[in-house]
Structures are given as structure tokens and as C-alpha cells.
Amino acid sequence: MGPRWRLGCGWLALFVVGTDLFIVSPLLPRIADQWGLSVSTAGLSVTVFSLTYLLGAPLFGQLADRFGRRRTLTACLLGFVVANLLTAAASGFGWLLAARVAAGAAASGVAPSIYAGVGEAAPPARRASWMAIAVSGLLLALSVGTPAGTMVASYLGWRSPFVVLGLLSVGLAAGNWLIWPADPRRGDSAGVRLPALNYWLLGRRMLPTVLWATALYGVYTYLGTWLTLGGASAGQIARAIGFYGAGALAGTLLGGQLADRFGTRRTMTVSAAGLAAGLAVLGAGAGSEASVDMLLLVLSVFAQFYFPAQQSGLARDFPERRALMMALNNSALFLGISLGSLIGGEAMALSGFNANAGICAVIAVLALVAIRASNPPARAAR
């Protein structure tokens, strides 16, 4: 199978993994009703997935680089099958949490292996564009997979989407095993030592992702709350989120092309600057309903330039450690999301949404500084 088949199969796997991640939130009221819990307690099912992903991604990245990406990817997809079927069969909330821990662990091994494989399969001049296409699978999971799964759950119960996702993952495990080439073990156990990591450089390369995600998700997490407090109807909130989602998809795809043409570092710089400016305007008061929609669209476009450019730069600069770098960057993303939620929540409680947006704008400026301060791509060490 050619490289485009690998890209397509990887995209489908990320779409399914993304749907599994995002589908839980709209199902929380049904899950809470099942066992007489509060929605906030049921929300622990999201938290344990995210924390397990955060911690598991570096481990599976190491395994993929050492024992082969195809082996790791297939094993994690099979684990993902089991985890989703266990989620659907959970007889109590404790069992559900255990199943979501397993799902988070499996997902943390799927995404980095795919990103690394796509980075390797892509033509060098189009690496960022291919990375962007792969990332778009996760974004479409939010705007397409999650609504579809929610509709299935409304007819067949909250367990049904997890059965569907588990069955789809069986086919994806087989497909990815057949499509990706076998790669030999390259780690110490095969008699070949992987290049040593420069941890100082590694920290500098991951810091921009943490700051970028903190700034972006510190605001996005509380966007619905802000709109609700402002008197927006459910339809108006859905439309605003729709504008944001459309911008995210467009920004990801466009960001990949810009990174291929103008370079990853320059694209990341433009992204952070645009994010900071958009958040500053949002914090100052965006004005009318229409202007809020357009601001969210533009802000999201600029913000999402960042991720495919960063992924492409890491894939280029650490060729022997691609899976680990993709894993660490994904962990940095989840760490930033967690920090953004925490900082945004404190800012909302103390001073409201406008202050939160202003604080996140400052964090975006720090991300810009971190991008400029990191080593040039040509010096990114092995």
C-alpha cells in the first residue's frame, strides 16, 4: 500500500480515537443518571482518560521507537477495542473509571505512532501538510463523530457509541497492520542504541506547546459559560462553537501548508501572535453577537496554525525519535489543557471572563517568546 493509503488509514484511526475522547462529555448526564451521581462526579471519567493519556504517551512513544510503530499501533488499537467494550459493559461507576483508564492508555499509544508514521511516509516538502490532514481527523471527530455518537446514544442508550467504536477499532487494527510497513526493532534490545536525548533542548521545544494550549483552552473551556451568562440561547452558543470549530479545521489544514512553504518556526510565531491578539480583543469586549462569531472564527484559524507546524518540526528534527517526540508533544498539549482549565477557572471565579481572556493573552505572548527562544530547526539535536 502506498503512502496515501497510510495517511487515510491513520486519519480514520485518529477520527475514532477523537470521537471516543469527545463523546463522553455530552453523555455525562446519562452516565450520572445511570448510577445516581452528580454530573461533576461522572466527569471523573473524562479526567482519568486525559491523565492516563498524558502519562502514557511518552511510554508508548518509547516503545514505538524501540520495537516498531506498526506493532505498537496495532497492539494499542486492540487494547482500545477491549477498553471500549468494557466501557459499554461497565456494571458500576468504578468499573467505568477503570475502563476509561484503559481507553486513555490505549489512545496514548495510537496517536503518536500515527503521527510518527505519517511524518515518515510524507514527502519531505509536504510533511506539515500531511501532519495537518492527520490532525484534522481529531477535529472532525469533535464536529462530526461526537454529534453522530450522541444521536446514536439518544436512541440506543449511552453504552451504544462505545460498542460501535470498539467494533470499528477491530477493522482499524487489521487495516493498520496491513497498510503500515514492518519496521525492525531499533532500540537497545536489537543491539542498536537510540541517540541520547538533550533534555534541556527537549524542554525548550515542548514549552511552547504547553503555553499555547494553556492560553487557548483556558478561554475555550469557559466559552460556553461566558456566552450563557451573557444571555445567549442554546442555538446562539451552538453557532458560536460552530464558527470556532470551522476555524479550527481551516486553521489546521492551512497551517500545514504555510509551514511547508514558509517554515515551521515562522508559522508557529504567526499563530501565537494571532492567538494573543485575538484573546486581547476578546478580553476587551468583542461587541455584537456577529462580531463574537467572526472573532472566534479568526482566532481559531490563527491558533490552529501552531500544532501541525510544531509536529512537523519535531518529526524533521528528531528522525530517530519521531514517535517519542509526537508523544511528548501530545502530553504537553494535554498538560496545557489541564493548566488552562485550572487557570481559567480561577480567573473566572475572581474576575470574570474578560480578565480570563486577558490573562490567557499574556500567556500566548509567553508562548511567542518561547517559540522564538527555542533552538533553530537546523540545530534541533538528535
UniProtKB/TrEMBL annotation:
* Subcellular location per the Swiss-Prot or TrEMBL entry: Cell membrane
The name of this protein is Purine efflux pump PbuE
A Gene Ontology molecular function term of the record: transmembrane transporter activity
Record's GO cellular component terms: plasma membrane
Q: Which PANTHER family match?
A: CHLORAMPHENICOL EFFLUX PUMP RV0191, PURINE EFFLUX PUMP PBUE
Q: Does the keyword Ribosomal protein apply?
A: no
What is the protein's membrane topology class?
A: Multi-pass membrane protein
Query: Major facilitator superfamily (MFS) profile domain spans which residues?
Result: 6-379
**Record keyword S-adenosyl-L-methionine present:** no
For this protein, the parts annotated as crossing the membrane are 7-29, 35-60, 72-91, 97-118, 130-156, 162-180, 210-231, 237-256, 268-288, 323-343, 355-373
Q: Which UniProt keywords apply?
A: Cell membrane, Membrane, Transmembrane, Transmembrane helix
Q: Name one Pfam family in it.
A: MFS_1
Its primary localisation, in coarse terms, equals membrane
